[in-house]
Amino acid sequence: MSDSHAPNEPSDVNKTELFNLDNLSYRDEGNNTIVVSNTKTSLILRIRKTNVGRNGYWSKAHTKRSEIFANQRILLQFGSQFLRSIHLIKTSPTFLRELEKSIEPFRPAYRKVKGVDLSENFVFVTSDATQMPSHLVKYAFGPTLSVEIKPKFGAIPIWPATGVVNLVKNSASLFCLRQEHSSKRSRWKDLSTYCPCDLFSGDHDRLVHGLNALLTTPQNNFRVYLDSHPIYSHDVDKLDYGLNKFFHLENNSISSSKQQSELPNGFDHGNVCSCSEECQFVNDRDRLIRGTLLKALLHKFDCTNDDTKALIPFNSTDRQPFSMHCALHADRK
C-alpha cells in the first residue's frame, strides 16, 4: 500500500550527495528547525526538532501540509521572484542521529534543550538563498552579499481591551514586550533597540531607524553573509571587511574564506565610504543600510505576472484595524 502522505521527491536531487555529512555544515536554527547547508549542491536542509507540535507531537500529515502551504499558498501569493519552492526528501534515523552528533559543537547552548526529531522521516530541502541563483550567475560578477532579516510581527491589532494585560498588549509590539522577559535578558548581552513597527511603517525615517537598530543589536534577527560565509551576527562582526570587498572590488581586502576567518571582530573605525568625494554615505555600513537595504525595501516590484497576482484581496476593509505606534518607543521621534 502506498503512503498517502508520501511527497513527490524531485528527480534531479542526488540523495547520496545531499546527505553526505562531509558536505553539510551547520548554518543556524530556530525554535522549530535546524538549518544545515550543503556546500556541494547549494541546497539547505531544514531538520525538524523535538517537541515542536502541540503536546510534543508532529504528524507526517502536518509535515506534508507545511510543504503544500509553502508551495501552493505562500509561493503563489508572493511570487517566485521572492520565494523558492521547497521539497520533502525522505531520510533515515541513522542519518539524523549522525548529523546531530556532527553539528552539536556548533549549536548555541540555549538551543540544545531541543534535539533532532529522530522520528521524522522527511527533511525540507530548498535552494540556498545566500548564493546567487544559477540562472543569474552569468549576469553577475564579484562576491555575493546576502542579508537575512527576521522582521517579526510589525503591527499592533486594535480591539476593545479590558484589564491591565490586554491594555498592554494593545499598546506595544509583542516583540518589544518580550524583550523585557527574563529569558531574553539572560540570553542577550544587550536588549534589542529594534521595533518591528518601524520596519513595516512605510515611513522613510522609521525604516532607517529600524534597520540601524537591527545592525546595532542584531540578536538573532539580523545576519549578513558574504559568499555564504557569515560576516555579521550577534557573535560575529567582520562586516566592514566584507562590505569593503563587496563595495570596493578594486581593494580586494579579503581574498579567501581562510583569511576571512582570521579577521578580528569589531567595527573598523578607519572605514569610510570611498566611492567619491561627494558620497552621501558616512561609511560602508551606512551605505549598506541607506543605499542598499532601504532601497530594496522601498522598491516597487512589477506584480502583473500571473505568479505574483494576489490570491487573497488585500483591501483595507477586509483587515482588522491595527496600529504601528509602539508605546515602548513613543518617546522616539
From TrEMBL:
A single MF term (Gene Ontology): inositol-1,3,4,5,6-pentakisphosphate 2-kinase activity
Task: Give its E.C. classification number.
Answer: 2.7.1.158
Whether Oxidoreductase counts among this entry's keywords is no
List the keywords (alphabetical).
Answer: ATP-binding, Kinase, Nucleotide-binding, Transferase
Q: What InterPro entries does the entry give? A: Ins_P5_2-kin, IP5_2-K_N_lobe
Instruction: Write down the chemical reaction(s) this protein catalyses.
Output: 1D-myo-inositol 1,3,4,5,6-pentakisphosphate + ATP = 1D-myo-inositol hexakisphosphate + ADP + H(+)
From which domain of life does this come? Eukaryota
One of the record's GO cellular component terms? nucleus
Give me any GO biological process, just one.
inositol phosphate biosynthetic process
- Family stated for the protein in its record: Belongs to the IPK1 type 2 family.
Q: What is known of its domains?
A: The EXKPK motif is conserved in inositol-pentakisphosphate 2-kinases of both family 1 and 2.
Function (record text): Phosphorylates Ins(1,3,4,5,6)P5 at position 2 to form Ins(1,2,3,4,5,6)P6 (InsP6 or phytate).
What protein is this chain from? Inositol-pentakisphosphate 2-kinase
